[in-house]
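pinning this so it doesn't scroll away 📌
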Amino acid sequence: KKYDEAKKAFEYVMGKGKENPFYAQSFALKIHTSYLQYITELPGNKAEGEKVAVQLKEGLDFLGMNSATLNLIQENAHLLAFYLDKSDEAIELLKKSLLIPLQKTEEWGRLKTEMADIYIYANDPWEATLLYSQVIDGNKTNSLGDDVKLKKAKLGYYLGNFSWAKAQLDVLKASTSKLTANDAMELSLLIGNNLNLDTTATPLKMFARADLLFFQNKNLMAMATLDSLTEIYPHHTLVDDILFRKAKIEIDRQNYTLAAEYFEKIVDEFSYDLL
């Protein structure tokens, strides 16, 4: 993650001239590095995000939109929607990219999955559901199909369709992809442990709403929702899950000391519970 050093290395290779066989690859990877550096180190700085968006656009103009630049297309769309709040522009870019003659179903599947994620960001879950279903149908023999089934189940969870979501997650617990299986098990346990014990699903709906806000990269609103949930239901079974979720967010923000405090609180105050 020494992004500045990496960019210097790519610039060195590019300095050998456009005729050198690694020029295009170095050009693309330098832009990719700028994108990673932005989302890791400066995600709240829109001015810096705009600079990276310009680099991505210039990169696609130079390299063209083809199967070799799908990563840049996807990163450009993700940056526009989730960091610069330009979901319409991102969706238009992905629609154009779907006109590229692609050989593998996984390739258009990845683009459609990104588009579905952006529709969730734009609060259009029905369009997202349709796209997820298309990707699942076209990718039954590879891991992308299971990954997107998990996304579709999470969308059901965000919308408060807990029983349906849990049924999908319980099937995915047997997924060949260990990461997908683990994530499915974690969310299934969360739903099962906090739905059956309560006469109302309202607290879990609030928690799911916070998770949706986290997915939409609206971290401040998500944290505020979790704080409200703690105030309204201070003795609910979700309190340790709230602390765990906050800890994971602080890890993403690289606030490790604060994350450790949340984990410590779970150990001290909820030693009898699952987490």
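📌 and the second one:
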Amino acid sequence: MQQKIDLESNGFYDLDCSWLPGELLSAAERCIEQQKTAAQAAHESVQSVERPLEFVSPDALEKILVSGQDVHGVASDRSISDVIVFGAHHIEDSVLSEAVRTSRREVDNRLSRELASIFATRKPLNIVSSGHLWYPKGSYMGWHTNNRAPGWRIYINYAEEPGKSFFRYRDPDTGQITTSWDKRWNLRVFRIDERKPIWHCVYSDTNRFSLGYMLKIQKQRNFFRFARKLKR
């Protein structure tokens, strides 16, 4: 891993996935295949939205900004996306499967340990899963901020057909909108700051699977207090 990200920085990072162990990516692909099988009924019932690209357009974001609305994400506003969600008990139509849950836990635990190395810090890091999603062909997730859960977001996504799906975001400093097209595997990292929302959205014209993670810094204050008491 060459590039190290400062925990106090801001910005958007599109990193190379080649440093991740090949066997781990293969395990992730096996988990994805299990998800496809478990979600077959949900996939068949998905009704494609007409003109999905309109929901991820710069014009769509401009309307949201003018209205002053803050869209957190699919967990609080399911209507912003027709994505298939896995293992989220708080989302009504989430796909729940014990087989997938076991496989996903293994992949999440291993990826969490690997992903900690992308940050330039000696602090203990706690990287947890924020959700697994399946974007079928023609699906989207509209503009949102994830502002109710500030911190670092890490997304590893797998696209069956490279160049047919993208992640789009708005730079909170310049207002510039950038479209980051998917390769086979992508690793994208950015910081959620309530004061400077980074609006983002996704569109896919292929089967696209997203493995999302959040970074939390473990607080050691209580441990140090306990250690001081022992010395007294």
